[in-house]
Specification:
- 36% of the residues lie in helices and 18% in strands.
- It contains eleven helices and 13 strands.
- The strands form three sheets. It has a six-stranded parallel sheet with strand order 1-13-12-11-2-3. Strands 7-8-10-9 form a four-stranded antiparallel sheet, with helices on one face.
Length: 282
């Protein structure tokens, strides 16, 4: 971890308005986090959802890359104007096939194998709740297949950075992977992340070579669990609220929006669509 403080490091991130026109012109798709990137204060705002439809109507490839559970992702893949959804921090992607008239599911390993790991995750759950009493298991846990989500800011008063680090330490002591989002700490068994599954989708379903994909897609995120995507995509964007997580991150986005959450998402969309009015809609 770098020793430079967050206030200094944020200066390394350029305003989204500085993205060169030739870079914008070659964007063919948008990969984006959901919580506090596409949402604002826990809600999908009209500005963001309208921007998603505008990008869809322009022909952009659209893929949410989220830590949210399989049950939610099934709905998103069927009902949202998106090409696929990568869920549970890279455990799977779901995409609806118009040709086949059904939802296609691609898992990093079989859900039956994940069931075998539930006992180990249950032991971690008990230890976290005992050692970090203010933590709670996320309300969306019943809809998950692969991971354990610990709520530190969604339906509970925000936990301290020290409490969040202790939760991460408990996962690590059990040799589990974990990532910190803006609201949850997600932990799982297996060597996968958002980036690996996003690459699989782009290659398997769209036939895109990785070098072509990384140069023609923009990624939008807001928190430490987006770091693999920030590192991989030259056109990576953090919505304004990413600034609060910079002290916890090694890999920062290349650009940052003026506005937070879904308003920041809409800001990026306007630039891609050539409609940037440079106004503040925070």
């Amino acid at each position: 971890m770098t020793s430079r403080c967050g206030d200094e490091r944020i200066r390394d991130v350029k305003p989204i308005q500085d993205m060169p026109g030739q870079e914008i012109a070659r964007i063919r798709g948008v990969l984006f986090d959901i919580d506090d990137t596409f949402t604002l204060h826990g809600r999908i705002i009209p500005e963001a959802f309208s921007a998603l439809w505008d990008l869809h109507d322009r022909g952009c490839i659209l893929v949410p890359i989220t830590g949210r559970p399989a049950g939610w992702c099934d709905h998103m893949a069927r009902m949202w104007p998106v090409n696929a959804v990568v869920g549970e921090n890279g455990a799977f992607y779901y995409c609806y096939s118009e040709e086949e008239g059904r939802l296609l599911r691609r898992y990093v390993f079989a859900p039956e194998q994940a069931l075998q790991q539930r006992h180990a995750l249950e032991r971690i759950r008990e230890e976290i709740l005992e050692r970090v009493p203010r933590a709670r298991i996320a309300a969306d846990q019943p809809f998950r297949l692969f991971d354990l989500a610990v709520d530190f800011a969604e339906d509970v008063p925000p936990l301290s950075r020290e409490e969040i680090q202790e939760i991460c330490g408990i996962f690590a002591s059990h040799h589990a992977s974990c990532k910190v989002s803006s609201i949850h700490v997600n932990g799982w068994f297996g060597d996968y992340n958002k980036l690996l599954m996003a690459r699989l989708f782009l290659q398997e379903r769209l036939g895109l070579a990785w070098e072509d994909a990384r140069e023609s897609f923009v990624f939008i995120g807001d928190s430490p669990n987006d770091e693999p995507m920030f590192e991989a995509f030259p056109l990576s964007v953090g919505v304004a609220n990413v600034a609060g997580f910079i002290p916890m991150m090694n890999h920062l986005p290349a650009y940052i929006t003026r506005n937070e959450g879904g308003s920041g998402f809409a800001e990026v969309a306007r630039i891609i669509l050539g409609r940037d009015d440079s106004g503040d809609r925070g």
